[in-house]
Amino acid sequence: MEKQNMLEGLKVVEFANFVAGPCCGRLLADWGAEVVKIEPDFGDTMRVVGVQWLSPTEEDENPLFENENAGKRGIVVNANTEEGVKVIYDLVKDADVFLTNTRQKALVKSKLDYESIKKINPKIVYGHLLGYGEKGPAKDTPAFDYTAYFARGGVSLGLMEKGTSPCNTAAALGDHYAGMSLAAGILAAVLRRNRTGEGEKVNVALFHTAIFGMGLYVVAGQYGYKMPITRKQPPNPLNTTFKCSDGRWIQIAFFQYDKWFPNFCNMVIERPEYIGGKYSTLKSSVNYVDELVPIMEDIFIKHPSDYWCERLQAAGIPFEKLQAPHELLEDEQCWANDYLFKHTYDNGNEGVLYNTPVMFEEYGIKDFVRAPKKGEHTDEVMEELGYSSEKIQELKDNKVIK
């Protein structure tokens, strides 16, 4: 018997672009929902921005658009026309979820805000990805994860090395966390709707997502702990990064300090004389951070990273060699767990894409279905809504659909 998709029968209308909203739709599609993506005539901007990261942006090979939109059907509708909004309403009538990351002002203008959509389908679960939230002075401010997540959310300054400049932001990092949060909230609301019959509006903001992610440091800030910090002054002197003779860096996670310190001294750095001394307990060592970190730097720089990796592993100390994103393409752990996979594009080129980060034992990984080309399924979806071929052509002639 063919295995049923986990979200079999869940119908999602996606009115979203860039990353944060569409990646939520990608997750739902991966889990078996039927997702219809609505784009304007010029298309989702994600179709063209890949050039900034040296990525192809052709219709037959567009990996960055693929990442966020695989598994969906795509239609083109002009939401700035009355007839275009009617088409969207026709989609919404039979849908379970309406998903958007469009700003509230534009949604109200187009009559695609929650109150308008709820009149069409009172049981709809309306998922809205925002920049700063529904209230407050910044509620209508344009937002990307560069601004709402990294900058205002404390992430950039929280991650930078104190005394240097902020890092060049890793675009879409915050978008993906916010999108996954919205997917979780939508499914919780669907579960409640199925029990009570009541629709729901689910909001997730990039700014709030950053506060949640940086929550440890936000809360600690009220007691005087301030970011950024320097790797030379970590919370404890062994909970930091060390540079090796081959130029590679190693991150040590020394959280069970008192338990691990003897093995670290004997098996890793060969300094048994430190055991029992002022560096040997967490309570004591935090008073000697400025002293012990430089000592460790001088030790680690004498040997290559593989030398230290072998010793740390033998001693049972949690560690990792720092990797650049491109190195993950060759990481055997990724391939062993199907975190990455190879995909052949319509032009015959083969590339690497990633699976979404929730794995299921029984359900497995849903067969990959490429992202829709712009307007690829417009006719098909319109026919399913009951539009005649004559009406479809009329709407095309009037530039309502494409």
From TrEMBL:
Transmembrane residue ranges: 202-225
Entries under InterPro entries matching the protein: CoA-transferase_III (IPR050509), CoA-Trfase_fam_III (IPR003673), CoA-Trfase_III_dom3_sf (IPR044855), CoA-Trfase_III_dom_1_sf (IPR023606)
Keyword flag Transmembrane: yes
Gene source species: Peptoniphilus koenoeneniae
Keywords carried by this UniProt record: Membrane, Transmembrane, Transmembrane helix
Pfam annotation, one family: CoA_transf_3
Protein name stated in the entry: Crotonobetainyl-CoA:carnitine CoA-transferase CaiB-like acyl-CoA transferase
Keyword Membrane: yes
